[in-house]
Design goal:
Elements (H helix, E strand, L loop, with lengths): L2 E10 L4 E3 H5 L6 H8 L3 E3 L6 H16 L8 E5 L10 H9 L5 E5 L5 H14 L5 E8 L10 H4 L5 E11 L4 E8 L7 E2 L5 E2 L4 E2 L7 E2 L1 H23 L8 E4 L4 H11 L10 H4 L6 H11 L10 E8 L3 E8 L1
Parallel strand pairs: 4-5, 4-6, 13-14
Antiparallel strand pairs: 1-7, 2-3, 6-7, 8-15, 9-12, 10-11, 14-15
Helix pairs in contact: 3-4, 7-8
The chain binds acetyl coenzyme *A.
Catalytic activity: malonyl-[ACP] + acetyl-CoA + H(+) = 3-oxobutanoyl-[ACP] + CO2 + CoA
Pathway: Lipid metabolism; fatty acid biosynthesis
Organism: Lactococcus lactis subsp. cremoris
């Protein structure tokens, strides 16, 4: 049996830190509003690095820390909704930068659920026996799609990247249970990166080239649908909510985490949180939290920790993987 295992985690964020007070100098907002509604204090905003630059820095760390020969990496999946370009993909750019010449590479688009969806895919690629080693990254330069004149969204997001190296050295299943979901009918509540059709044959313009979000609708979706998804995944796993060591959820809003913990009847301390430093980094938020937790010694990658990973966002998409870390 081939069991996938996460052997390394790493993250990278742009150096430029933008505080709530910094934002209040360029738009009509203030620290009290942002912090009390979201729990966010700072975010890191790119001063020129693009998504593949951030992702490449993460992959280089994973390679360096593991000592793996880049030519032995079989695949690279980058979860992102802010690619450098649609073609080549961000993952292809990363593959070239790190010399992973034998890896196939592609991007996966599932907004803030992207890392969890990609991890689910990677686990199957390895546990099927088809591939031995791969990398999953969540990477975003969200600042380039934000409408900086819209204070209701501009204050929420940040840039960053993080990811994991997986191989087939596991002695137990990586994913104990999972449930991935999409509801395209509600997709209109979170939009970005629409491209107009302007050809000799048609002229169609769309609204939504920049990010737009129905904040309240997304908030309601997060606190109504997502706990049900976590509960259903727990039932599949035969684990009780309190048997999970840590809950690593998409870092959108600390009030969402408060409500989730309450609904699941789990002590809030188990819901790790770092959005105060990074804001909402979309597909990067869960792996940044994972990598930072390992770095800070909260848990290690020795197979002893049971963790819930849950993403939710544009699509709409949402999904939980309960994993042995
Ligand atoms: N500073 C000051 N005031 C503001 C700001 C700001 N930055 N933004 C909005 N306001 C004002 C509004 O204009 C409004 O004023 P009004 O009452 O005079 O009209 C007031 O604050 C309240 O605005 P609401 O939008 O109702 O605020 P709410 O309490 O709903 O909080 C928030 C907004 C934080 C966006 C919340 O709805 C939320 O967290 N939603 C979920 C976001 C999320 O989880 N996204 C995850 C997915 S992201 C992805 O997938 C890419």
């Amino acid at each position: 049996m081939n069991f996938a295992k996460i052997t390394q985690a790493a993250h990278y964020v742009p150096e430029n830190v933008v505080s709530n007070d910094d934002l209040s100098k360029i738009m009509d907002t203030n620290n009290e509003w942002i912090y009390s509604r979201t729990g966010i204090k700072n975010r890191h905003i790119s001063t020129g690095e693009n998504t593949s630059d951030l992702a490449t820095k993460v992959v280089k760390q994973l390679i360096e820390n593991s000592g793996v020969d880049p030519e032995l990496i079989d695949f690279i999946i980058v979860a992102t909704v802010t690619p450098d370009s649609m073609m080549p993909s961000t993952a292809a750019r990363v593959q070239a930068q790190v010399g992973a010449t034998n890896a196939f590479a592609y991007d996966l688009t599932a907004a803030c659920s992207g890392f969890v969806f990609a991890l689910s895919t990677a686990e199957k690629l390895i546990s099927s026996g088809a591939y031995q080693r791969g990398i999953v990254i969540g990477a975003e330069v969200f600042s380039k799609v934000i409408d900086w004149s819209d204070r209701s969204t501009a204050v929420l997001f940040g840039d960053g990247a993080a990811g994991v190296l997986l191989d087939n050295s596991g002695s137990q299943p990586l994913i104990i249970a999972e449930k991935m979901q999409t509801d395209g009918k509600r997709g209109g509540s979170l939009l970005s990166s629409y491209a107009d059709i302007q050809t000799p044959f048609a002229s169609v313009s769309y609204e939504g080239s920049n990010l737009s979000m129905e904040g309240r609708a997304i908030f309601d979706f997060a606190v109504r649908d997502v706990p049900k998804n976590i509960q259903a995944t727990l039932e599949k796993s035969d684990l009780a909510a309190e048997e999970i060591d840590y809950y690593l959820l998409h870092q959108a809003n600390s009030r969402i985490l408060d409500k989730m913990a309450k609904k699941l009847g789990v002590t809030r301390n188990k819901f790790l949180q770092n959005m105060q430093e990074y804001g909402n980094t979309s597909a990067a938020s869960i792996p940044i939290l994972l990598s930072e937790s390992v770095k800070n010694g909260i848990f290690s990658l020795d197979g002893q920790t049971k963790v819930v990973l849950t993403g939710f966002g544009g699509g709409l998409t949402w999904g939980t993987a309960i994993i042995n870390l």
